[in-house]
Amino acid sequence: xxxxxxxxxxxxxxxxxxxxxxxxxxxxxxxxxxxxxxxxxxxxxxxxxxxxxxxxxxxxxxxxxxxxxxxxxxxxxxxxxxxxxxxxxxxxxxxxxxxxxxxxxxxxxxxxxxxxxxxxxxxxxxxxxxxxxxxxxxxxxxxxxxxxxxxxxxxxxxxxxxxxxxxxxxxxxxxxxxxxxxxxxxxxxxxxxxxxxxxxxxxxxxxxxxxxxxxxxxxxxxxxxxxxxxxxxxxxxxxxxxxxxxxxxxxxxxxxxxxxxxxxxxxxxxxxxxxxxxxxxxxxxxxxxxxxxxxxxxxxxxxxxxxxxxxxxxxxxxxxxxxxxxxxxxxxxxxxxxxxxxxxxxxxxxxxxxxxxxxxxxxxxxxxxxxxxxxxxxxxxxxxxxxxxxxxxxxxxxxxxxxxxxxxxxxxxxxxxxxxxxxxxxxxxxxxxxxxxxxxxxxxxxxxxxxxxxxxxxxxxxxxxxxxxxxxxxxxxxxxxxxxx
Amino acid sequence: xxxxxxxxxxxxxxxxxxxxxxxxxxxxxxxxxxxxxxxxxxxxxxxxxxxxxxxxxxxxxxxxxxxxxxxxxxxxxxxxxxxxxxxxxxxxxxxxxxxxxxxxxxxxxxxxxxxxxxxxxxxxxxxxxxxxxxxxxxxxxxxxxxxxxxxxxxxxxxxxxxxxxxxxxxxxxxxxxxxxxxxxxxxxxxxxxxxxxxxxxxxxxxxxxxxxxxxxxxxxxxxxxxxxxxxxxxxxxxxxxxxxxxxxxxxxx
Lengths: 485, 253
Known about the structure:
The structure holds two protein chains of two kinds. Chain A contains 23 helices and 16 strands. By secondary structure, chain A is an alpha/beta fold. Chain A folds into three domains: 20-152, Oxidized Rhodanese, domain 1 (3-Layer(aba) Sandwich); 166-239 and 352-397 and 417-484, 3-Layer(aba) Sandwich (D-Maltodextrin-Binding Protein, domain 2); 249-344, Periplasmic binding protein-like II (D-Maltodextrin-Binding Protein, domain 2), CATH 3.40.190.10. In chain A, helix 8 (177-184) packs across helix 18. Chain B has helices at 2-30, 42-87, 89-103, 107-117, 121-146, 150-158, 163-197, 206-215, 219-247. In chain B, helix 4 crosses helix 5 and helix 7 runs parallel beside helix 8 (206-215). The interface between A and B is medium-sized, with 35 and 23 residues.
């Protein structure tokens, strides 16, 4: 009697296993059709995974839309067949008609376990006349796939996923239009990166915070100061840029003669002596010791304007942020712009982007993700410059006109390129003019520049977004090759 | 009415000085005798006030959030260390060189070092303000205790006052005119240091506002922030003077 009961139970279990969607499917065999169901032909996961990159096959994820969007097979197209599975054959046919429009490929159907959804889709495909010899069902469905091949799912952590989701960044007192745009346009969010801003406005303070680990990345500390920190032993790595050139006017009283950088010789200047673009330009003009041929006064920009008006100095160099009040002085006829910092030494390298070497080494994907987001921002900026001033003005709490005064000027060049050759040039000038620690002689500055991550980010961006603005990415690559090789 | 009369009588000279300075500024800027970059005209400063008046009170609160704990910490350090050194000649002589050495280091030069060593940026700002304000009160406390009239101490001995009772009932009150004089100087320094302390770790504050717009060369806003800061300083100092008068009501003046 007991044997009979056990046998009966076994028969019931086997029968149930044939109709239940969650039951293991017959391996690579044609499913026996129930009533008017079209027979399904199965494909195993290990065969299917070899076809992921194939142009002859296409994967249809026919589970509920919410599930396929949460996790699926990479490259699979999502076609929700829930209504068809519930018996709405017309809805199923409509979905499959849409899915196969112009399609002449072999289809691999992916449902939960290779049963009811797949059957509904198979029936629909047959009903609309698709060549059924080209339709396969993934055996065990996505449930089995995600257990056996978790690395081949869209929810799987990617090898190049950013190591950090939140990065602490300092952008000084004047902000960074590339970061602001990347936030505004959602480019950083696309990369899964959130920015926490750490406030500090003085270059030394910014770099001290970087060195002490209270900030991850600085974008506005100039070039001379990070190099001075490196020379003094700070282990920083420069991996990108912010401003290739700032919009910095050289001003003088109206009518003052200007014949290029040589006009500075013998004069008293409101220019800090570690402004390597000026001293470097003098060196290029043949003055080996530029600090001895002109009187460089280490004045703040505001102090320099006041000193110029009092005729204490002949030329003053003014910061990017001060263009608006300087324009007013020019309009009033009180001063004249005789040249620009970027004209004295083109692409002099205004602000670099740096982190500790440890941070860059430990978080290369995070750095790359940020670089990709900022490259897209630079692309947007170059194509839509006129739209950008209000974004930074809003962040800074200043009038639009204040930001427009520098941002729409041709001398202002936000550029993400790390500019290796420019950094090496600045390092040499600063060393020769005595602004680097003695220790600098033992340092190879190239060990503190990482251009690989930028190069990779540029290549990835070109592949992903290059079609949006091919000229921009071509220009960026050409510039990279010129300034980093 | 009598009160208004009394206020007018008391402050008419100060008011005239401020009005005179204001008129002089107005004249100099309207006639083009002052550099517009640094000395914007009055209407430009007024425009800045109209645009940013909503920021003034939040800035003040933000600054007070740093200043109040800083002042309390500075006062606690100054009073405790000052009392020990004021009452103990040996300790005073031994530690005077150390105190003098540290007191001459300008707090603004310490900023990067403090930033490097302080656990948070907020604590760095507080340390900087404490450092710049503690010395005036500390030296005043030492001097105040050192110069207590001997008759007070004799009377305390006659009354057999000892320990904390002697300290709170005789020594502290007797030294308080000098200590409070030092503390007034310390309060003024607190406002000066705000501009530096709010250069990092802050996204608002009276000092932050002035520094930010100075970096943009927008001196109409700088002047507005500066005038507001001065008004707050005057209000705080006036309140403190009233407190001081109350605390020292037993003295002759």
